Structures are given as C-alpha cells and as structure tokens.
Amino acid sequence: MAEKNADRDFRLLVLLVLAASILATSLAASWFYPVSGQQVATVATYYYVPAVQAERERPAIIRMPQDQELPTGAVAITPDIPCGKVPAEISWLFHLPLPVNQADQESLMLLPGIGPVLAQRIIAFREAQGPITGPADFIRVKGIGPKMTARLTPLLCFSKTGESAK
Q: Is 108 helix (H, G, I), strand (E, B) or coil?
C-alpha cells in the first residue's frame, strides 16, 4: 500500500514539473514577443508581376512583406483574385482555379482525368467556338460528360482574361 502512494506522489510531482515548465515557456515567449497592439512579424504575400514592366523580361512571382512598396502592376495572389489575373501555369501552385480559357495543354493535363487528347480537344473547342463560358459549354467538348464536368467545375474558372467572374 505504501508503494502505491509513493508512485502517486511521484506522478503528481512529474505533472507539477511539466505544468511549471509549460508556464515558464509561455511567460518567456511573451517577453520576447510582446502582446501589445503592435504586430511583431510582418506578413508576407505573394505577388504576380507581369512582364510589361521595363525591368522585367518575363513574368515573376515575388514574395514581399505587406508594408513594402510594390512593383508597378503587381497583383496580390489571394483566394479572391479575379479569374485570369494569374497565369494558368502557376494557378496550381497557389491552389487557385484553373482559367480554362487561358490554359495550355500541359496545364489542362494537370486536371484529374484529362490526358493529352482531351486537353487538345478542349483547346480546339475553345478556338472553334470561342471562350468556354461555363459548365454548359464545357460539357459540349467531345469526351467530357456530366460526371467529369461536375468533378472538374470546382477546379476551373471560366471567364476571359482579366474578368472578375469566377
């Protein structure tokens, strides 16, 4: 009976030491990172900088803190960015919908169930019929049925370049 009480006392001591170390760590963290109304670290955002700038030969993705001055024409890459503002080639990097009207064959092949033949059919349909304006147009592509359209619609945006509709 005495051994069981000694084990309990030892467990209680370990729990108290653990609680004290957690409390000490949180207090030390508050000394290094003040909790006043000031922001301790600046938040960085990714920006798409088009090639139209004189100093850039090609488009670029840059990461900058929000408090720094942005290059001319830079667009913040956020979930609410208009469809077509970010090129199709990099939309996957930021988990954005693929702009189907600007996507090349390689970008279209990143979609589940789309191979080289179907990607080429989408491009041919786009060139022959004009921009794909929604799921009703997308389903008209030979080889794309209702199930595939339903599965791919959340991964696509259907507006023309620079339009704000998704």
A: helix
pTM over 0.70, yes/no: no
Domains of the chain: total? 3
114 lies in the same domain as 32: no
| Domain residue limits at 163 | 80-166
Strand partners, 60: 49
- The three state secondary structure string of 105-128 is HHHHCCCCCCCHHHHHHHHHHHHH
pLDDT digits (tens, 9 = 90+) for 113-151: 999 999 999 999 999 999 999 999 999 999 999 999 999
Q: Which residue has the tokens 């963290």?
A: 29
Across 75-129, the runs of DSSP E, i.e. the strands, are: 75-76, 98-99
